[in-house]
Write a structure and sequence with these properties.
Helix content: 25-40%
Number of strands: 33
Bound molecules: guanosine-5'-diphosphate, magnesium ion
Oligomer: single chain
Radius of gyration: 37 Å
Number of helices: 20
Length: 656
């Protein structure tokens, strides 16, 4: 399905021509009927001679309603520029033509209408003038059709010229990410909320869950209508009315974008290539305030010129648009900028990066990077995006202060970012991998230099951790991941590759997952070993009333103490009390042995059994109760259901 949009000066006969061609009066508002003038967008459709059905968007020509025109012109494939033969080219003819040119609408037909009002000589002069104005625009080679909505002259020729223009227009791309820039919101009794727009870049189906950005609201598609007919699935290109449930009309307005959940994130800055119209009254200055029109949205913005202090009329330059409100945009989107006074269209351009960082001005690396993104081959663009001066992510994550930002992306995300079909991106990646410019880690792709940086950082983190905590198995995996600022799934793939390269290894023990250097083995330094030997000697001297944790930590430090526990050399009964392994097993043997011979054991008897104090005994029972080697009955202990495990422990001791 294709969409034709009218353009041209007010009163030149656009709406009358649409009515004559389609039988549908696009002026639907009562105010429009009363004033005989189009104020807002109007919609019609027609079956062309080839049998192809097309949508028509009729725009207002009056300069006061240019913003409505801009909301409708964004989605069109073919322009129908209407020029009244009696008046010829007028200011909004020129402004609309400039807009079509900036939006790169390549296909069009020029209707020189009201030709019933002029003689042939005049008509010839007007046509000559029009051809002159069209030259140097995208519509330079469009056919001129002299016609009259009043007499019907030229209308068949106009329809067949439109047919040719539709056939010549570039095919609507389908990137699998449907989006509908909303140009109208209304309620219909019995149906509820309805939004309309021209569907782009993907299909939409009835029943689908959708999201409205930049508001982040969820809704469901209850039904779809194209040209008043219900459809189950809509293809990109056509006008579409979408009946939504789960969302109120008051929550929506023109400029919002309907898309599939999670597909589009709003942005507040755009890196762009900007063309200033030759007809602009003055140069565009750095930091100028303008209105940006993109899709059906209109947003005030400040323009940071990245390479100059000003852009002369007719000049082109790189800029970052800092938007006053978030909007939805993707690489390749075209936009228009206007200044408020005098109210004029002064330029427009193309989005090169919809999620840019702030740039230093006149930074050659930034400028050449933008150049590549705008004009490079698929491979250049894919590689540039992976090199990632862009912080862009489909699902933005917090950006790192120091580490992170390695730009790893999966195919679908990359295709999204570069606005190219996935197979083309895949092909480009294959070539880049073959040339060692891109590295894969599982399903993630990295620019080689970014991968070098990532593996270096990943290794340094672990090495530093080993240096700081030589007694630990390694850096907790989650800490490693979050320090690197890499998302969980990506981190897993990265680690798998680094393991395969022999750079790092993942260690699992009872306490969790750790990342270590393959050669790392926790080992005590000589002087630590001396301290430990001394301490363990004290444990052997008084096996059942040994030094407490604060005393051990005082002597050995908390790292070594923790290590002795981790190694199983010391058993931690509670916060304060530890036993060495042999004493612990001996204590268990005696307690369980006693309970097998007797009904129960009091704390006092137990204390005597081990020759220790109440404090140690209570700590031991705390531990054995928890493991159900013993059970508490009143203040006494009886044999617990897990007591058999103790035999296994003691067995282990014998074989030690
Ligand atoms: P728009 O502002 O471009 O949509 O212009 P309209 O379609 O509203 O037409 C403006 C005026 O021109 C109306 O009074 C129409 O009746 C008149 N008009 C439109 N087309 C023709 C035509 O082909 N011949 C003549 N004589 N008048 C026309
Ligand atoms: Mg009109």
């Amino acid at each position: 399905m294709s969409c034709i949009g009218t353009a041209g000066h007010v009163d030149h006969g656009k709406s009358t021509l649409v009515t004559a061609l389609t039988g549908i009066d696009p002026d639907r508002l009562s105010e429009e009927k009363a004033r005989g003038m189009t104020i807002d967008l109007g919609f019609a459709w027609v079956t062309l001679p080839s049998g192809q059905e097309v949508s028509i968007v009729d725009v207002p020509g009056h300069e006061s309603f240019i913003r409505n025109m801009l909301a409708g012109v964004g989605g069109i494939d073919v322009a129908l520029l209407v020029i009244a033969a009696d008046e010829g080219v007028m200011p909004q003819t020129e402004e609309h033509l400039a807009i079509l040119d900036l939006l790169r609408v390549e296909s069009g037909v020029i209707a020189v209408t009201k030709c019933d009002l002029v003689d042939d000589e005049w008509l010839a002069l007007v046509c000559e003038d029009i051809l002159e104005r069209l030259s140097r625009t995208t519509l330079a080679n469009s056919p001129l059709i002299a016609c009259s909505a009043l007499t019907g002259k030229g209308l068949p020729e106009l329809l067949s010229a439109l047919d040719d223009a539709v056939a010549a227009a570039p095919a609507r791309r389908n990137l699998g990410r449907p989006r509908l820039p909303i140009d109208r919101v209304f309620t219909m009794s019995g149906f509820g909320t309805v939004v309309t727009g021209t569907l782009q870049e993907g299909q939409l189906r009835a029943g689908q869950e959708v999201e409205v950005q930049p508001r982040g609201l969820r809704a469901r598609v209850r039904g779809l209508q194209a040209h008043r007919h219900a459809v189950d699935e809509a293809q990109p290109g056509g006008r579409l009315a979408v009946n939504l449930t789960g969302i109120a009309r008051s929550g929506l307005r023109r400029g919002d974008v309907l898309a599939l959940p999670g597909m589009f994130q709003p942005t507040t800055a755009l890196d762009v290539r900007l063309d200033v119209l030759a007809s602009a009254p003055r140069a565009l200055l750095h930091n100028a305030e303008v209105e940006v029109y993109l899709g059906s949205a209109e947003v005030p913005a400040r323009i940071a010129l990245l390479a100059q202090d000003e852009l002369e009329p007719g000049a082109t330059g790189w800029a970052q648009l800092r938007l006053a409100h978030p909007l939805v945009a993707a690489r390749g989107d075209r936009f228009i900028i206007r200044i408020p006074s005098p109210s004029l269209t002064i330029g427009g351009g193309v989005v090169v990066d919809p999620f840019p960082r702030r740039h230093r001005r006149r930074d050659p690396s930034v400028l050449s990077w933008l150049e590549t993104l705008a004009d490079g081959t698929s491979g250049d663009i894919v590689l540039a995006m992976l090199r990632g001066q862009s912080a862009m992510r489909r699902a933005p994550e917090s950006q790192p202060a120091r580490l992170g930002g390695y730009g790893g992306r999966e195919l679908a995300e990359l295709a999204w970012v570069v606005s190219m079909p996935a197979p083309r991106v895949e092909e480009a990646l294959r070539a880049l991998v073959a040339r060692d410019q891109v590295v894969t880690a599982g399903s993630f792709f990295f620019a080689s230099d970014q991968w070098q940086r990532l593996s270096h950082d990943a290794l340094m983190l672990v090495r530093e951790y080993h240096r700081q905590y030589p007694l630990r198995a390694g850096m907790p995996r989650e800490e490693w991941r979050s320090r690197l600022q890499v998302a969980p799934r990506e981190a897993s793939e990265v680690l798998v590759r680094l393991e395969a390269e022999g750079a790092l290894s993942e260690v699992h023990n009872g306490r969790g997952a750790f990342v270590a250097e393959p050669a790392h083995a926790p080992r005590l330094a000589a002087e630590q070993q001396q301290g430990v030997d001394k301490m363990l000697a004290r444990f052997r001297n008084e096996p059942f009333s040994p030094p407490t944790r604060p005393e051990i930590e005082e002597a050995l430090g908390s790292e070594v103490t923790a290590w002795l526990i981790e190694q199983g050399t010391l058993i931690r009964l509670n916060e304060a009390v530890l036993l060495d392994r042999d004493a612990y097993r001996e204590a268990l043997r005696r307690v369980v042995g006693y309970l097998r011979a007797h009904e129960s054991l009091t704390v006092a008897d137990a204390r005597d059994l081990l020759g220790t104090t109440r404090k140690y005994m209570l700590a031991l029972f705390e531990y054995t109760d928890e493991r159900r080697y013993t059970l508490r009955r009143g203040d006494d202990r009886i044999l617990g259901p897990q007591a058999a495990e103790v035999d296994a422990l003691i067995q282990e001791e014998k074989s030690d």
